[in-house]
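Researcher: Excuse me, tokens okay?
***
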Amino acid sequence: MRGLFVTLLIAGCVPSHPSGPVQIEVESFAEVSMGVDITVKIADTNHRKRLSAGRLAMAQIRACDEALSDWQASSERSGLPRTAGVRATVSELLFAATEQSIEIARATDGWFDPTIAPIVQIWRNARATGSLPDAASLDTALTRVGWQHVLLDAPSQSIAFDRDGMTLDFGGMGKGFAAQRASAAMVESGQLMHLVAVAGDLVAGPVAPPGKPGWTIHKEDGLGEAFELVLLGEAISTSGDLEQFIEIDGVRHSHIIDPRTGRALRDRTAGCVRGPDGATCDALATALCVAGVRDAPSIMRRFPGYRASVTTLEAGKPTTWSTSPGPAGPPCPLDVVIVAPAASASLP
């Protein structure tokens, strides 16, 4: 059930005409979409403008759900043909999401892969039944995975696969993509003071609420210490297995899948990425969880302007790697964001 609920918070005031100050209020809109809680905060002097911007943002997120969902049989993604070579003309939204996800897959050498849907479905069934997936079934599903086998044609805005049984999974970047689309739509409409939160994927507009340097964000991943940061004109995403996992015979299996092996991660892990684009942050947070501390530096060197950290719990001991500054660090010019050497990753 979808609903739009409103909470008013007085954030400050600004002078706008000679008769005196006009109060700016922050209005918070909440809804359930994409299977998660959505919150959009908008600061403005006019309730109707806030309401209009809130509706615009939520409409963008609903549209992403209708295009990208793998839970809804009626979604556009669910209707993609799974026969090799059969091409489908798709919406601008689905094509843009697919194109960006393939670009990120290429840049991460497949640590992030949007074609893992056949494997994801097997692990979902495992969580539902409490039984470990059959290795042969996973290996078979793995033959239908590989971002290199997605065939995109920009002039016709169409998608095809060159292997039978392939399809797409946007679970690793769809929420960040939706948050970014909602923010961009509000910026285009002139509503610059806003914050969009699609579960743990957040995007802040380019103008701060009155009297503040930005939006104060509280982040925690269950492995490291919780921290607060100020977000303005950026996105931040957190990925991990704090809540979604299955334990079988004393072994913990994460909902995060290694696209190279088809196996769920077993070591507790959490990734956090901050940067200029929500979809990229979301996908990189997923990729870093799979890559872990050892391979994280090689990934992040290819994404200048993004700050990140990843923590892995091995034998009960947390090991953390991060860029310098990490995602909790203060805003800084893109050209001074450097990748810390992997040797500095271990914590005492």
Remarks:
- The longest strand covers residues 20-33.
- Residues 80-161 form a domain with the T-fold fold (CATH 1.10.3980.10).
- The chain has three domains: 1-69+170-212, 80-161, 219-348.
